[in-house]
Amino acid sequence: MNQTVGNERMKRWRALARRCALVFVALCAGTQAWAIAALPTGSLGVQLASQPAVTLDAEQLAALPQHTIESATPWTDGVKHFQGPLVTEVMQAAGLKLAVGMTVQARALNGYVVEIPAEDFLRWPVILAWTMDGKVLTRRDKGPLWVVYPRDSDRKLRDAKYDHRWAWQLQHMTVLPASK
User: pTM (2 decimals)?
Assistant: First the structure.
């Protein structure tokens, strides 16, 4: 009788160990799938006005140093955590260097176009956010890329004149030379 009870316990422990192993494998697979999915989507075209465009894909954008901005926006509720590369670093990755007097024309997927003084990117750590609160941005939530200013860190950025510069669903940036 003791041997029978011992065998039953051993069977239960083995069954439990198999279940735990399966859960562990499933969690590892899920974590790996999450890591693969946690990349920006789409690509970004960047160019100097008179030159051919350079296309930076999702992997190139994710490989750049990532920065975080915590800020409230006029379009979201409460303070959000945005992550992405600095615009200046994206420009450098495309072989361009911003300077005072230049303008960056940002074009969105929906046809929205805004001209942003390059001074904004030189003065503040403006990012091309591809995540908000740890979730990859999609077209439904202003992605795949969103120009995000550190609005809460400088009162000046709360002025409505800066709000229209927060281009979302960004697909292309053209650097216009300084006017002479």
Answer: 0.76
